[in-house]
């Protein structure tokens, strides 16, 4: 089994590790995307990614567009924090447009790391009702049993998802990081640069954001000094999935 994943605060890596159960090749999408002639074959191939704006992170979309994936059984898991929209339905359609098929497409409700919309304290308090472990155990059993599952979404969700994607194309321009505020707690340790899946951050005497930001908020959540802030954040509390260490996040995302 090979599992490709994208993660900014560890939810998807935690899920990939649990599905992989220690004997699976885990490949971080930022480490391979953009390389020429991307082709992977295995008996089982999976992709685990966070749902962004009812859709895919830009980099995951690029990976799914450019990689040739060949598996006898293929699955896609989108983690999300509140509402998945028609993401998984669109991912299955997108794969078919690119010549392969996800036999199983499912979403998994976890902590929402979108700081402009959510307070991490509230998200952590809601964890028991999100039943992450129970839902993940079901997904793992489904994958072990090679179950097939086609995602569905009603017309309302499909419409909302299309509208959000249209708005996002105007708003998401890779320069989001340039609007973050870095305060005096920054000691130029460089962690933000190492956890950035886009290699978009340089640290010298100050933190410089270029224009390839994925908007994943990894730098904001994982700064050891909590020095990076959004102008509109609910509070200063940050999230890293407790099943993933900062070292693992750096190994997954460091592009420098
Ligand atoms: C830019 C951005 C957009 C997001 N959009 C959605 C969304 O549309 N629906 C949702 O339920 N969660 C959304 N989320 C929350 C993440 O999908 C969720 O927290 C995910 O589990 C994070 O996975 P990770 O820790 O592996 O990065 C968004 C998060 C970010 C940073």
TrEMBL record:
<feature type="domain" description="4Fe-4S ferredoxin-type">
    <location>
        <begin position="207"/>
        <end position="233"/>
    </location>
</feature>
<dbReference type="InterPro" id="IPR029039">
    <property type="entry name" value="Flavoprotein-like_sf"/>
</dbReference>
<keyword id="KW-0411">Iron-sulfur</keyword>
<dbReference type="InterPro" id="IPR017896">
    <property type="entry name" value="4Fe4S_Fe-S-bd"/>
</dbReference>
<dbReference type="GO" id="GO:0051536">
    <property type="term" value="F:iron-sulfur cluster binding"/>
</dbReference>
<keyword id="KW-0479">Metal-binding</keyword>
<dbReference type="InterPro" id="IPR017900">
    <property type="entry name" value="4Fe4S_Fe_S_CS"/>
</dbReference>
<protein>
    <recommendedName>
        <fullName>4Fe-4S ferredoxin-type domain-containing protein</fullName>
    </recommendedName>
</protein>
<dbReference type="GO" id="GO:0046872">
    <property type="term" value="F:metal ion binding"/>
</dbReference>
<dbReference type="InterPro" id="IPR047964">
    <property type="entry name" value="EFR1-like"/>
</dbReference>
<dbReference type="Pfam" id="PF13187">
    <property type="entry name" value="Fer4_9"/>
</dbReference>
<feature type="domain" description="4Fe-4S ferredoxin-type">
    <location>
        <begin position="178"/>
        <end position="206"/>
    </location>
</feature>
<keyword id="KW-0408">Iron</keyword>
